[in-house]
């Protein structure tokens, strides 16, 4: 890993063991490097699964297959390849994934559809079957490893390993939720990708698990942006091993379901924030909150227009209270807005209200807020009850250096 | 003006005089600078006008008023203020514009609605009425100036003056079309804006003029992007003085209308390209052509997704044939596409076809193309007959320096 992001947490957190989850790693040597790059996570029989995937139409075979597998609702294993995304590789890419699924299924004596595969890294090069086969064989028999080692092994251009945990009480039992993620680095000629895997020992029917993950992702993994670009491989999977010993949850109003959902959402939010904190070249973590839009969906589109604006992101990098750029971004979102009701704040300091700079605007506290690492931008549209919060990072020379300063 | 863009033309072109158009400039001193910053263009009685404006909802009073004025269809004068955009300034901003309109209308003895005003520069600060009044008074009586001086005077952070011309035969007469533009610089704490003004001595009914401008803008001013951000003040006006002596054109199938349209479109395209060539930090001019989409509109959305992708733009800056990023951008556009039919080219060299890298891909000619200043990217979707071309520039350290490397 390269120089640790200045926005990284101090250390990898303590994650609880999740009964029914065993991690192993191995060297497949997908690139010319000496590090583990293949992660194998074995899941106990009876594990249920949910997934959300990139909406990029040019997605990888892993994503296509994953979408089908999630419909079956059960899982026994996860393989994550680092160094080759296997995207845009046609039928050869697909058969490489199917070969991995068959190899692991043989070992576990399960259906191939219970074996999930993700790959990130170079695109356009079919995953080398021989390296994958040897790597998987080594991983199947490797000794179990820690969460931190697994989190490091799924990473590619990440500058720190990402993990998060939470717990809840369900049916009188403490259930645990632990997750790891990778993203969002990008380096020649790799493709950035966000991968997230969340594990719980709760017992949850697949349909409910899917409902919980979809809802949680909306305000977490789907509310972050680094550069507005959408990977061809983005994947978040949620596995429930059912080992906690409570009666299985099947509906959202079952007792304990809300508590479990809250724990899952907390882990998803923590991981999503860590991905932004590892954004390429990031020097500031930015929260954009839009309030009083005509609807929550409208608020989110406005918030993303602000968060994706290169001019807003460079202003924050420059610690410049350039609220005009925020106004511009609100106006270009294509959502209902009224210039003369709009109010903008940095931190807790309102800089513009009712379509005008505030009277007696004092830039000193605003400037002080912008010198910090955690920046908050607010836009109040004054129209309705819709609200949304998204997160991004600033746009710096570091981003250009990572993505342009090389020749392939 | 700062260091001239490396993509600038060698010199300002020779523009023909347009009968009925007189240019004058003056110092309003909207900023603490010693340069002309107020342009006054007088138009002979009978001049018709058409306009297209920013779709940014948070637009300036100038844009709001301009939209109303264009519906009247006639024009006698244009005032362009440089250094203050007058955007997000509420009623005070609006009364400042109305005062200018009244002052010029008094001088010419025309309706206030025949006086068009544009402003670009600092936002959030109402246009100072006293400076505007004195500047307009000086401009009204200044001696006429050249196209080049007017083009320089409307500029703010432009690194070169932008002009273009063309001609056509209408009703046996040669009609001339000349245009000037400004954009797309941005510097603390100003807001970038594209302004374009096109003048012809042809005689054209307002409705037809509007139809021609709207159609021409679609493939020119509305087919360029620097950073995906949309100004609150973008304006293009087309004035027809009717002095060429041919029978007025009223319908698109009138003889000569097509020739005039072609000349207008040529000037619009030339000016639009010059705006991109002055894009902040630009080192490469990029043409993105999408073919065989399901429709022209769909092709344009895909082309803009490619042109606005920070990862594509940084790859071009790095002279990197990273076609995977183009694939990613096609896939994220949200338009119909089929990964396994997609083909990508740089210059005339296909690098991927049918969802795969081409067999025996030779990177040498692609690398040679990418070392040039004029880059062409093609994406063939293989689905239908839709096609579109858009233009952008690369994303470099220069962009970050201009937009982030300062403190306000």
Task: Give an account of the 3D structure.
The structure is a homodimer of 408-residue chains. The first copy, chain A, is α+β, with helices and mostly antiparallel strands and 408 residues long. Chain A folds into two domains: 21-277, 4-Layer Sandwich (L-amino peptidase D-ALA esterase/amidase), CATH 3.60.70; 285-404, Ubiquitin-like (UB roll). Chain A is 32% helix and 25% strand. In chain A, α2 runs parallel beside α3 (129-140), α5 packs across α6 and α7 crosses α9. The two termini of chain A are 20 Å apart. The interface between A and B is large, with 71 and 70 residues.
> For the CA atoms, what is the radius of gyration of chain A?
22 Å
CATH superfamily of the largest domain in chain A: L-amino peptidase D-ALA esterase/amidase
SSE pattern of chain A, N- to C-terminal: EEEHEHEHHEEEHEHEHHHEEEHEEH
Described by the principal axes of the CA atoms, the overall outline of chain A is globular
Number of helices of chain A: 11
Family (chains A, B): Belongs to the ArgJ family.
Function (chains A, B): Catalyzes two activities which are involved in the cyclic version of arginine biosynthesis: the synthesis of N-acetylglutamate from glutamate and acetyl-CoA as the acetyl donor, and of ornithine by transacetylation between N(2)-acetylornithine and glutamate.
GO molecular function (chains A, B): L-glutamate N-acetyltransferase activity; L-glutamate N-acetyltransferase activity, acting on acetyl-L-ornithine as donor
InterPro entries (chains A, B): Arg_biosynth_ArgJ, ArgJ-like_dom_sf, ArgJ_beta_C
